[in-house]
Design a protein that fits this description.
InterPro entries: FAM192A (IPR039845), FAM192A/Fyv6_N (IPR019331). The protein is an all-alpha fold. It has 6 helices and 2 strands, in the order αααααββα.
């Protein structure tokens, strides 16, 4: 660094340390800072900090107290909720008892069906045969012979013979 450069840098440092009249007049035009409204507190610093901390904790507790408000139930509300609970319990036990009764009845019926043999009644079978006979009676055609006699088919003796007729070349005669 040359001497001229060194001299100019020193001059700048000295200039920055002095205030001109222009700077003073500008500062006067600006509004003066307001004095603090707080009074001087002669208490020690640790006492003031402890008080501020306590005040902040109280504010937080107040916020949480209002946010998490839990109130106790009074006797009327307690009895009402107990009545609802008891009614629900009675209904559940009633449903369970009814289900158990129905289940026992089903088991008893299933057991009785296992022990009883299944017997088909002959009467039902006869009734069924009679119904079929009535249905087929209209389907059987009655033939007339040449000599004028009416031949009625005898289903009980030989149903094929009654339908086909009496022919000499039938296999029954052989």
């Amino acid at each position: 660094m040359s001497a001229a450069e060194h001299f100019s840098s020193v001059r700048k440092d000295i200039k920055s340390k002095f205030i001109s009249e222009a700077n003073i007049s500008e500062a006067d035009k600006l509004p003066a800072p307001e004095p603090s409204k707080e009074k001087w507190d002669p208490r020690p610093l640790h006492v003031r900090i402890a008080e501020a901390k306590k005040k902040e904790e109280d504010e937080m507790n107040e916020i949480f107290r209002l946010a998490n408000r839990i109130r106790k139930l009074d006797e009327d509300e307690i009895s009402f909720y107990e009545q609802i609970k008891d009614a629900a319990m009675r209904k559940q036990t009633e449903i369970k008892n009814q289900e158990n009764k129905e289940l026992e009845k089903f088991r008893a019926d299933a057991e009785s069906l296992k022990t009883k043999p299944v017997v088909k009644s002959n009467q039902n079978l006869k009734r069924h045969r009679d119904q079929q006979k009535d249905i087929l009676s209209g389907a059987v055609k009655i033939k007339k012979r040449k000599d004028g006699k009416i031949e009625t088919p005898n289903v009980k003796t030989n149903p094929v013979k009654s339908l086909v007729g009496d022919y000499p070349d039938s296999d029954d005669d052989v």
